[in-house]
């Protein structure tokens, strides 16, 4: 099997340099492809985008899930920070709402995020981080319920449901997607809230300028 090229006559330093460069190219290509098309994009397409051979890609990342796990490692850390921020907010309801808004924004920017976040593969990686995130979100929910702002029958298991509700919106154009997803989340938050004395609900963000025909005529691969 051919080795990755080296541009230095000396032993392993050039090979290490080329291997590191290839790894960076693969990660950048995968990150862009996942954001645009989701994590179902073929490995061969990622290799082409990175300008490397398929064999090189598999030497760096033996499985698709290993690549997915590495690409989304930064977002795992970002999610941990979002949860910490929500838990530190002195207003539990505001912390809950801001957290869902942050997750919504990530979903719209990156089509692969929801698939990776909800991945059930046994080798998905970050199992400990995922378990901690679930515990932290449950605590965010408990705090918002304890102050009487979040309905008592809301479950932490509703988070995947909320995320899946946004998935279809991500297939629209980026301009429409952001506006539509904000309005959808506003609807959802109103349904989650316990309003004092059944008072008036907050006004919703403006609806997107999109009719049913635009949805019906969406191409099969969404934004592309």
Automatic annotation (TrEMBL):
SUPFAM superfamilies in the record: Homeodomain-like, Tetracyclin repressor-like, C-terminal domain
Top-rank taxon: Bacteria
Transmembrane domains' residue ranges: none
Tagged with keyword Magnesium: no
Pfam families: TetR_N
DNA-binding region per UniProt: 42-61
Matches recorded under InterPro entries: Homeodomain-like_sf (IPR009057), HTH-type_TetR-like_transc_reg (IPR050109), HTH_TetR (IPR001647), Tet_transcr_reg_TetR-rel_C_sf (IPR036271)
UniProt domain HTH tetR-type: residue ranges: 20-79
Transferase as UniProt keyword: no
Swiss-Prot/TrEMBL keywords: DNA-binding, Transcription, Transcription regulation
PANTHER family assigned: HTH-TYPE TRANSCRIPTIONAL REGULATOR BETI, HTH-TYPE TRANSCRIPTIONAL REGULATOR RUTR
Identification of the protein by name: TetR family transcriptional regulator
Annotated organism of origin: Pseudonocardia saturnea
